Amino acid sequence: MSRHxxxxxxxxxxxASARRLLGAEYAALGVPDDHGGFAQFVVDGVxxxxxxxxxxxxxQHGVLAAMLHETGPIRLDDVRRxxxxxxxxxxxxxxxxxxxxxxxxADHDADHDNEDGDGDQDxxxxxxxxxxxxxxxGGGFTDxxxxxxxxxxxxxxxxxxxxxxxxxxxxxxxxxxxxxIAHDLHDAVSQKLFSLRLTAKAAAKLVxxxxxxxxxxxxxxxxxxxxxxxxxxxxxxxxxxxxxxxxGLSATLASQxxxxxxxxxxxIAFAADRVRALPQAQEAALxxxxxxxxxxxxxHSGAGRVTVTLVGTPERGAVLRVSDNGRGFDPGAVRRAGxxxxxxxxxxxxxAVGGRLTLDSSPxxxxxxxxxxxxx
Length: 376
Fold this sequence. Notes:
Elements: H1 7-22, E1 24-32, E2 38-44, H2 48-54, H3 62-68, E3 74-76, E4 98-105, H4 108-112, E5 125-135, H5 143-206, H6 211-239, H7 244-263, E6 267-273, H8 280-300, E7 305-312, E8 318-324, H9 331-336, H10 343-352, E9 356-361, E10 367-373
Parallel strand pairs: 6-7
Antiparallel strand pairs: 1-2, 1-5, 3-4, 4-5, 7-8, 8-10, 9-10
Helix pairs in contact: 1-5, 5-6, 6-7, 7-8, 8-10
């Protein structure tokens, strides 16, 4: 569970693990929202057709609601005899033996006790509830089952909290990227368009009295317009969502390199070798690092050639390498000047997925950015 950073995938793994470990016919995991329903509700042991026939996500009522306000387990020989039982839709499978276990954030007390200043102790936060039903082989769930589920729920709390923190950090990163793209638009495109406008005005004034200079100014207008178009294309490539889930990392990188190669004067090439499918979080991090490294090479290095390679490793990981033959730079001088070229962001992305990022550059020798991620 802890290897996965997507909340939905963590929920799915918890649910499937609980059903398998305790020998239950059905398992579900509900995460409550603030409006009397469930923000997420994952099931295991029910086919897609059965789930569609059951209908909308359940509301917080009956035994489901009771579990959301408990910090301990509920074990029943027959859930239908529980006082809180409220029935289920016609297509719902028939449930008998039942075991429910809350997933509790054990650190909530320490972090939030007496936050409101009223002197009362806040209870642990219930992140969700695991529901199991119908013990295989008949009979009910045992004390051993309950203890096993308690241990699983403790691990699930850590995994779910980590996944939530990761998704939150990703949201903040995306917000930062939008701000950077807006900055690029202002600094690069807007300034070029302003220069283009002034140059065009100058050409108009020179047409009658100095045609030769007017032609030179119009040539400059054409050059500035072409550069502005290149800048806009590059920004559009960064804004356009990459089809990682549909196409995979190699195909997505190849497509983006092809677009950039058409948009810029530099020759940009891509090659991949022995690349296996990686966890989604790792593929997303590799893609973003490749985009940042390409952005730096094309905007700042003056490179005539940029090469992107993606190679699988024997440990089922991958190595991304972006190299250019540009002017290079002194990384230490860049840091001292407060210009980071996105290097901190790239290193953070690599670290977030258990990877490692290295940078090799010096004036006059070009730049190599390399990121390695471990196997799943």
